[in-house]
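Section handout 9: paired folding examples.
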Amino acid sequence: KSLVEHGYNAIAPAYLAWYVPRPSTTRLRYLHKLLTLLTPGERVLELGCGAGVPCTQALINHGLNVTGVDISSAQIALAREHVPQATLVHADMMSLSFEPGTFDAIVAFYSFFHLPQEEQEMMVGKISRWLKKGGRLLFNSITDEGDQILEDWLGAKMFWSGLGVEGNINILKKNGLKVVEDEVAVDVVEQEEETFHWVLALKQD
C-alpha cells in the first residue's frame, strides 16, 4: 500500500490529465444507475476519490452528503480544488472508523483492488457495517486472481491484487451484501481494452 500511495503521489497531475478526457462509459453508466436510487441529502462514502472528478463531483451535484477518502495526499489536494463541498480525508481506507449504519451508499471505483488480497474481505466487512439497511455498494475490481506489480504505470510503479470474479461475489455474500447486478465489462481506452468486474450490491437485514 505504501507503493500505491507513493505511486499516486508521484503521478497525480499526469493521471488527472490522462483519465478525465477518457471517461469509462461503464463507470458512468453504473454511477448514473446509483444516482437514480439516491435522494439528495443522503450520505455517501467514496473510497478512493482521487482528484474528485468525475465521480465525486457527480455525487455532489446530485445533492448528496459526500465523504471522499484517498490514500494519496496529492490526490486529496486535487480533490479539494475540484470538490470543496465534500468532506475529504487522507487515509488508508482500512484505517477508517465509522458508526454502524452511517452511509446510504458506498462507492469504490478503481481502488478496491489496490488492497492486498487478505484485506479485501476485511474491507467488505467494514463496508457492510457502515451501510444502513437497504444501503448500496458500487465498486469495480480486476478479474484476475493474485497480485500484480506494474513496473511502469503512467510513470510510476503500481500494485494491484484480485480475488477473481467468483471471489468478489463470495466475500459480498459472506458479509450480508446481496448482489443486485454484476458484469465483466470491457472499455476501450486509447485503443487498449480494460476489463473490470463491476458490482452493485444491497445491504440486507
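Moving on to protein 2 of 2.
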Amino acid sequence: MSWGFLRDLLSGVNKYSTGIGRIWVAVVFVFRLLVYIAAAENIWKYEHDEFECNIKQPGCENVCFDHFFPVSHIRLWALQLIVVSAPSLLVVFHVAYRENREKHHNQKLYRSPGERNGGLLCTYLISLILKTGFEIVFLVLFYKLYNGFKVPHLVKCDVRPCPNTVDCYISKPTEKMIFLYFLVATSCLCIVLNLSELSYLLFKYSLKCYLTRHIKKHQ
C-alpha cells in the first residue's frame, strides 16, 4: 500500500502544531513510518513461510503459527500507525470548517483559522488525548497477544491436529525482537510527547485565563 496519505496528513497538521507537536510529527514520520517502510516490513515479509515445526502432520504448522501469532506484528504496527495518526484529522477538519465558514459568510470571522483558540483548542486537546489513549491501547494489545514484548526462539505447541507437543522455530527471532523493542520505545516516546504537549497547552491556557481575570479585576 502507499503511505503517501499518512505523510500528507502529518504534513498538513504540522503547521497547526506547537513545537512539541512538530517533534511528535518528526518522530512518527522518521522513526516509525520510514523504519516500517525501509526495514521492518521486509523482516516479517515471509514470517509464515519461515515458521518451521519438527513434524509434517498436515495442518499442524498452520495451527501452531496461528496460535502463537494471532495477528502479525507488522500488520498490527501498520494499524497502530494509522490509528494514532487519525485524530490529527480532527484538527484539519476543524480548520477546514473555519475556512469554509468564513467563505460562506464572506467576511473575516477569525484572526487566523489555524490559530489555536476556542473550539480549535478543544479539538486539538481531544486529538492529543485520543492519540495518547490509542498508543497505550496498542502497547497493552501487543503485550497481551504475545505474552510480553519478546520473540522466543522456540515455541512448544500442542494444539490439535498436532498429535503431541511439537517444537516450532521462529525465523530471525533476535532481529524481530530488536525491532519490537524499537516499536515499544518509539510508542513510549510519542506518549511522553503527547502528554508534554497536553500539559503545556493546559498550563498556557490556565495562565492566560488567570492573567485576563487579574487584569480585569484591577481595571
